[in-house]
Amino acid sequence: MTDLLPYQPSLASATNTRLDTSCRHHQQCRVSTDDMLAYTMPSKNDHEELQRNKYRYCIHKDEFVVGIGRPWVTQVTRKRMNNAYPRVISNLGQLSMDNDGKLALMMIRYMYHYARSVQEKMDIIDWFKDTGAPHAGLDSDGTELDERHWAFTEKDKENLSVWLPLMADQIPVGYAQTLGWAHPNTGDTMVTVMIGGLRTVMNGDFEVFPGDLVQWYWPFEKDCFRQDGRRKEYINGWTIKRARDGRIKALPPNVHPEIEVSGGALGPTRFHPDGSVVEREKYHSRAFGNASDNKTKLVARVKPFFRDDDNPRIYDAYRVFGIAIAAARPHEMLDIKISKQSV
């Protein structure tokens, strides 16, 4: 019997964390079938796809859970039946930068990077709705760029109305304790979410230190940040004055605004992590069902939050949900305190 003692589960492994905590707050939520149906490709509202690839759309245990908040356009958003439980998701289904869902991801990335106030958020939404509004990508000197360097091309702008009714604010909820299916024909759509307490989670693409505020982000936003996790400079962004003048400096947010344009060589600034970071990301991403055949599942990640007093991004502040209590390199286990009530 003595030989078996070292193999007995500890409190940390039994409670799915390396932290010994006696206070953990949980909430019952329901996976939003309506939203997950919108994330099926190549066609939306594909019930068979949602059931056939059930593990792609469900909320897995230990994934970060995102709540569906206020729609961007309340007038055209379809009415949903009242529900006693919050509607949540943990991934964006089949949406990727390689299919028709790219436009939805570009809208999210653009809004999260350029909205510095509620008024600017509404201005951007109005611009999304106006398919005829002029828009041009400009460099830091005001020179108009080729259309391929614009945040949205003319064709993109015409198709924004397809995705706009599906857009809504995405709010932090917590970490899933159980598995929740995306379609009721597959199984129970209820999921238990940890919304408060100490927990060990997987860090994202940026280094975290004790005391850092922690926010969540989508993987396709990574190139909108610098290597240390801070937002890129806000130069060619959105302003009401430019909108009224009819000239909108709509550089993609993942492009560094100070890059010089020579021979059409403008492109996104990307990370160059060392080999160990790449290996850790490949290894741990398997837990989310990510494969090497470009069928990546977009699952929310965490990063440190940095205030920008000159150009505060309101959506970064909205997405703060905890505090780091230990340091972690990119794609390492990270100890955090989920405390949305006190951050």
Task: Provide keyphrases for this structure.
343 residues, alpha+beta, 5-stranded mixed β-barrel, 10 helices, 9 strands, 22% helix
Describe this structure in words.
It is a single chain. The chain is α+β, with helices and mostly antiparallel strands. The protein has a domain at 24-109 and 172-231 and 254-339. It is 22% helix and 18% strand. The chain has ten helices and nine strands. It has helices at 11-14, 33-38, 47-52, 54-57, 102-114, 118-129, 154-163, 240-245, 275-285, 314-318; strands spanning 25-31, 64-71, 87-89, 168-176, 190-202, 213-217, 301-304, 320-324, 333-339. Strands 1-3-2-4-5 form a five-stranded mixed barrel. The radius of gyration is 21 Å and the shape is globular. Residues 4-8, 236-248 and 257-267 have low confidence and may be disordered.
